[in-house]
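Please review the protein record below. Let me know how this chain folds according to its tokens.
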Amino acid sequence: MRGLSGNMTAFSELGHGAQFKAYDMHNGRVLKIPLTEAETYAVARRRRNIIHGTIEDIASLETRVQTFMNSKARIPEMITHSFNDPAPFLQLLGDPQLSTVSLPEDTHEKKWGSARFVYTQNKVEMANGMLRAICALPQLRSGDKQKLKQYIEDYVQCIYNVWEYGYSDYIFKLGDTGLDKNGNLIVVDLGEWTSDLSFMERAIEEKWWLDNVNHQKHDFPKLPQSLEPFYVETLQNAFTVDELRKRWRKKHLCSTCTNETTTLAAFVSERVAEIDYIDRL
């Protein structure tokens, strides 16, 4: 990668999912650059993307790619929303900031579609790596078990906190969270979020968080099997429609969300599916 001066910039790649590549900026921040359509196809082909809660229902490759490409489009509005005090909300997301760097225009070979932006975020110790390391141990130690139980409880509280701002991750991928330098649990994957309460009610009712213990979902890093009952029981009790409604938008104080705009948004979302093709089936 070359900087504006033409000198090579030493940003090392940390990895990528189906939506963004992440680069270590070596200043406590991570740079995220969206994958092109062709790159997204390459990722999607390697995944057996089972629809939530099922074993046999597999979404088509084209549907999966369109979902990955388009679901990123809500990120800019979410992280620049006109909250009276946006800092507490953004801290839950690792303080994401849009970059002023522009992507090139789409070509036949390289298409970014609706997600034409780059952003930065606080670097965290990813739960993905922690889960894989602990699961690789020949025997689960009591300290590791307690650490994971506390992490699950902290995860619940983190999701409760974002609900209060009227947003939520609806994939509930435990591995896409992490701990910042102060030990705070952060939700870092912002490509699969929604502000649609009815959509979130469906995700809760259908218990999409069970994908973390669905061994057919290979892209979800798993908990040790001995902790799966604790995870299921904890989230079964915590993630209910009643709890969601009780917390939803409790702290959503902003300069633009009037009663009229909120009503209009709810009306439109009921008649026009968002951009999550797989999950709207």
The first strand starts at residue 12 and ends at 16. Residues 142-163 form the longest helix (22 residues). Confidence is low (pLDDT under 50) at residues 1-7.
